[in-house]
Amino acid sequence: MDLFNNDQLSLFGASKNLLPFDGEVLFYPHFFKQDVFEQLVNETPWKQDKMKIYGKEVNFPRLTAWYGESDEVYVYSGVVNVPVRFSPLLLDIKQAAERQSGHRFNTALLNYYRDGNDSMGWHSDDETELGGNPVIASVSFGASRVFQFKHKRDKHARVSIALNNGDLLIMQGQTQHHWLHQVPKTSKMQGARINITFRFIG
Ligand SMILES: O=C(O)CCC(=O)C(=O)O
Ligand SMILES: [Fe+2]
């Protein structure tokens, strides 16, 4: 291994950019070492949100919970979320993500994918409350799931990565302007997974 090769992933605690252009996605595998999946499942007040499709109410294909430091209300996929206060465990994880990213977060969205049928469709986290070039830290626990990016204009530009227990992914720079991301359904036998995205709402 060439220690001076910048292409190495996680060299000296740094990370190679997973995106080829128009944004920055940093990946830190096995970043959070404590096994907290069960605790997160049990302590979180999960909600089943619904969306309206052609006038029909449909369940989101996942459960969610919204955490915040104060009363920031956040509209996500048309749902108004009133935050719950951070638990000590979430504060620990948040602090670790803040140290690694060099940014402060005041809110967290938790998504609970109960099995391979649960998913999140293509979107950007580009709500105006997040500011121009948001830094978003994503921490995953439980079963492995595929996480995909596709460029909004260059149809050939796609990036795919498996997110495993304890992995940290940081999206920053122009990422939300130019790229969509998703967690597709899978027919593979798949256990449950929790993802936390830490954000700063100004
Ligand atoms: O579950 C994930 O890895 C991604 C979640 C996500 O994109 C979001 O919460 O906006
Ligand atoms: Fe997202």
UniProtKB/TrEMBL annotation:
One of its GO terms (biological process) is DNA alkylation repair. It comes from the Bacteria. Residues 104-202 form the Fe2OG dioxygenase domain. Keywords: Dioxygenase, DNA damage, DNA repair, Iron, Magnesium, Metal-binding, Oxidoreductase. This is Alpha-ketoglutarate-dependent dioxygenase AlkB. One of its GO terms (molecular function) is dioxygenase activity. Coiled coil: none annotated. Its cofactor is Fe(2+). It holds the Pfam family 2OG-FeII_Oxy_2. PROSITE patterns: FE2OG_OXY.
